[in-house]
Amino acid sequence: MHNIYNSKKSLVITGAGFSKAAGLPLDNQIMAEIFSRFSKIEPRAVKYLEKFAQGNLNIVDIRNSSIEEILTKLQVLEYYSRNIHKNDIAEFKLIVLKFLSDLLKIEIANLPAEYGDFMNLFHAKSIFATFNYDYLFETICNNLKINWTYLPDSTTETNSFGSEEYFQNFCFDDFINFEEGDRTPVPYLKLHGSYNWQICWNCKKIRMIPGANAGMSTISKYLIGHRFINCMEPECVKEDSASPLMSPLIIPPTLIKFYNFKYIRSIWTLFQMSLLNIERVIIIGSSLRDEDLLLLNSLSCLNIKNKSIKELIFINPNIELKSKIADLSDMKISHYSHLKNYLAQKK
Ligand SMILES: [Zn+2]
User: Considering 12, 106, 212, 287, which has the largest number of Cβ atoms within 10 A of its Cβ?
Assistant: First the structure.
C-alpha cells in the first residue's frame, strides 16, 4: 500500500461505531451484555438495578434499554426529585459504571485487519481523537508496536499530566509539527475521558493506569467485589488513615453532558487547535448528535476556520448524516459506509 498520506496532516475522529467491528457493544447492547455477564457473579447488584429502574426510572425492561436512556433518566431524577434518597441514586450510578468499565476490559482478540491497515496508513501524520472510553486504539497500536500518547510528551506517564505546570509548559507546535519519519508518539485525545484515567477527589491529580487495572473504586452494599484504587500522591498518603479513592475521569454516557473537568477541557482545546492546523478530517463511526454541542461547534463552518482543509471524509453506514456534516462544515464530503470500503479504494 503506497502511503501517500504521510506527507499530510490529518485529524481522525472516532465514535462508538469505530469500535463496532472489534466486537465492542453499542449503546443499546450494553445493558443486555451487563445482565448476561454479571447476573451470576453479582446477583444482588443486578437485581438492585432492575428494581430501582422499575420503581424510580419508569423503565420496565432495563436489559433492553439503552445505557444513555437509563443514565439520563437518573440524572433528571437526581436534579428534580426530592423524594428519592441521594444514596440510592449514587449506588445505582456506581453499579452501572462499575459494570460498564468491567465490560470495556473485554480482551480484544482477533482484530479485523482493517484496523491495522488503517493505522499503518495514517499513524505517522495524524492526530487521533475519540469519544470512546475503551482501549481499542491502544490495543491496535500496541499490536503494531506503534508509540502513542494521550498527550504528546513522555511526562504523560507520570502524575504531572493534568497539573497546572503541564499545560503551562505545553507547546502546541511540538504537538502538531511532525517531521518525516519522526518517531514521535501518535497523539490520542480522549475527549470524553477514559476508564484508565483516574482522578483523586482530594488533590485532583490524575494518574494513568494500565487498562487491565482500570475501573471504579467501589464500596457498595449490593456488590460482592469491592475494589479500591487509592491516590499515591504524598499529600494524600497519611499514616493514620486510608488515602482517598480515585475514580475514572470520564464524561458519563448521558444525553446531558457536563464538561466540568479542567483536564477534559484542556484536551478539547487541543482538539480545537488541531482542527485549525490540519489538512484532512476523517470522522469514523460518530453519529454527530445534536446534543454534542462541543463537537458540532468545533466542526461548524470548518471551511472558514481552516482554509487549508482539503478533504472531509465521513465514514458511517448512515448516509443521511452526510448532509448533516456537509451543512455543518459547509464542505464537500467524501462518504464511505465502512472503514474497509474507504481502505479498499486506497489500495
Ligand atoms: Zn490525591
Answer: 12
Query: How many A from CA of 234 to the centre of ligand 1?
Result: 8
- How far is the C-alpha of 165 from the C-alpha of 48, rounded, in Å? 44
Strands 246-250 and 206-208: unpaired
Residue with cell 469519544: 131
pLDDT in tens, 76-128: 999 888 777 889 999 999 999 999 988 887 667 788 999 999 999 998 889 99
Rounded-to-integer distance, Cα 109 and Cα 95, Å: 27
- Tell how far the Cα of 201 is from the centroid of ligand 1, in angstroms: 7
**Class of the 4-22+112-192+255-344 domain?**
alpha beta
Q: For residue 163, how far is its CA from the centre of ligand 1 (angstroms)?
A: 12
Distance from Cα 162 to the centre of ligand 1, integer Å: 13
Domains of the chain, by residue range, sit at: 4-22+112-192+255-344, 27-103, 196-250
Give the C-alpha distances (Å, rounded to integers) separating 251 from 68, 73, 106, 260: 12, 16, 20, 9
